[in-house]
Amino acid sequence: MIERYTLPEMGAIWSQQNKFQKWLDVEIAVCEVHAEDGTIPSYAVVEIKAKAAFTVERISEIEKTTDHDVIAFTTNLAENIGPASRFVHYGLTSSDVVDTANALLLKESCDILLAKIDAMLPVLKRRAFEFKDTPQIGRTHGIHAEPTSFGLVWALWCSEMERNRERLERAREAVSVGKISGAVGAFAHLAPDVEERVCAKLGLKAADVSTQVIQRDRYAEYLCTLAIIASTLEKIALQVRHWQRTELREAQEYFKAGQKGSSAMPHKRNPILSERICGLARTVRANSIVGLENVALWHERDISHSSAERIVLPDSSATLDYILAKATLLLDTLVVYPENMLKNLNLTHGLVFSGQLMLALTQKGVSREDAYVFTQRNAMKVWDEGGDYNELVTQDADISSHLSNEEIARVFDLKHYLRNVSKVFERVFTK
């Protein structure tokens, strides 16, 4: 994790201190179940819970010799517990501890990310209704297409983030799974019900079946879900970057007092927050590929996934947490210029109404092919020679012979394009 892009709460979850604490939580839960079954004496559990302690520094020091972090961890515990430490890690393999602890870390991470999404959704809804009736030119291929509502853009983002929330809930369930099944998952030294009870103590489900490790399709699902969410945020941020272009200036990032845009050009207001979101989203997507590569391991398990997961699990979690927070700030404070939206809508002098004109002609019995020709030839004149599209089509005998001036005027009425916005809002916001 990079400190610059890591918020404190998520950073604390993926700290070395918390990781080892989760390992200890798993070890103690196993000891408690053993004591319930009489596998180890009850007094030993009391002693273990009272004396179990570790330091990150000491574990690191021991690992220099062992080249095995779990053994370094249990050795450090033994130094503090004393003779009762012989019951720690009883019947376990390292991955029983690591993977079950990972489930706790990932579950906590999901909770933070879900809270971030929950903070964003009201912002999207509020601004959708704020701009529900604000006309904006819709663009396809970067070219003016037809008028739309600026509020629909926000409604779309809100709907997509709702789907992202559902995805994350499913991913949370997928990763909230532990295993206490031994070296190859065959329960050679522990009964399956031990696994079930340990996981229940920890608020997890037990894997139906495993090898030495929890199967990595679960982690891949988590990382891919984070990648999808990051992609949505990049889509939003990229749109803001387009709107902030000088030629458009339909919206821009809030520029606070004292902020600087360029070291060389004092006039600049750059979309730096949106650009940062776009850049960081790429790293989250890239990490999802690592998750997919980790699904296939040699036989019951190799260790190739371990080093990669030490990077991608905390990094993707922390990065998405960061950009969710920044995206919410961006959207909450976005400065919008409706007057520029209207100016840009009118930039092509009515060309964006050509589709409705063509349909109006077909309603009068004109073939679609002829209607297309009539509308397009006037549109090309405006593109090439300038002028007003409304005036040209009114003067076109092929058009005026089928449509009255009043009917042509209705074609150019913005209200026609926004008449169903409320129905879309009902779909999005009244579920």
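[next item in queue]
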Amino acid sequence: MEKISARNPWAWIPTLYFAQGLPYVAVMTLSVIMYKRLGISNTDIALYTGWLYLPWVIKPVWSPFIDIISTKRRWTLMMQWTLAASLAGIAFTIPTEMFFQLTLAVFWIVGFTSAAHDIAADGFYMLALTGHQQSFYVGIRSTFYRIATVAGQGALVILAGSIETCTGDIPFAWSVAFGVLSVFFLMVSLYHGWALPRPVADSARDSSRSAHDVFREFVDTFRSFFRKKQIWAAVAFMLLYRLPEAQLVKLINPFLLDPVSEGGLGLSTKVVGFVYGTIGIIGLTSGGIVGGIMAARGGLRRWLKPMAWSMSLTCLTFVYLSYATEPSLLTINICVFVEQFGYGFGFTAYMLYLIYFSEGRHRTAHYSICTGFMALGMMLPGMAAGWLQETIGYRYFFIWTIVCCAATIGVCSILKIAPDFGLKKRGTE
């Protein structure tokens, strides 16, 4: 088979997927910590940052346009340049009087740009590599995406916390953090202008396809999705499996940061960067690895309910922390690790089911629709989580997330899954 790309994939895959992970972390996690440190209430943080999931919710609707217009390479580079400018905009608007409104507006731009970058980068990956190369490098891209998560939730938060401690100027600290992100994307845009190959497939366009043909195919994709067997059971699973986590994830960092007098743990920004952004990510990644191994050995149907219970029971760690009297940093680290490990282990079943349900003629498009439902399932509960927490307090809020675990377990019981799906085939590596 003729080699698709002359450029060594090691020259661009690690940096491309590192760059893909950082904006998502900035929108979903850094924004929450930053707003908390700048004095925004939990109600407003959860409501307004919850809306930032919308670009990923509606991504399947506008992703065809990236396929039709220009090339994936050009889209990727354009989005990286836009991200560099947008992140600089956040850095410059943080010190202003209307920082909340202005930064939220720019975060919206970052969200839509990041979602477009995801579509373009993933499409470019498939066009620039042979089938064998795609399989070989899939672990590499996932690894560097995780490293980006550690860098964002860990290193950048620690950087902001250190500057907070040294200067006492919280807005300045977060301006620097987002300024560093902006400079990174400026550099990565310049680098990828050289490093990204120019695959022949990325330049090819089918001129015979009219706008009407494209629209008809677009409609057919959605129609065929909603005609799948067990469609409503599947949609219920996509929306409700992560119901506890959708609420919990918005309040973990505020809980760690809030003073003890308000029911929190009173940790510094720097320590939160280490606990949740480093120890937590290690737990999440470890859980995902173990989950993948178990699913390959026993199949999705066998492990679906145990993984659902894993996601549910580990939420008890935050119930414990909310009742504990001045827990040590070691105890906090262990609890966060256990909860994130359980979540990573349980999330394996969710992703495998999306792959399972997407099988068929429009596999890629249907998977994209599934991820849209996934984002919607995170967006809607998360928006109300802050108000709920401020109404009933951290202790009862965490107890409420345990109650919501009934939905996680319940939706698993209505699914029908082939017994051999996910099993490692004999004779395969």
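[queue empty]
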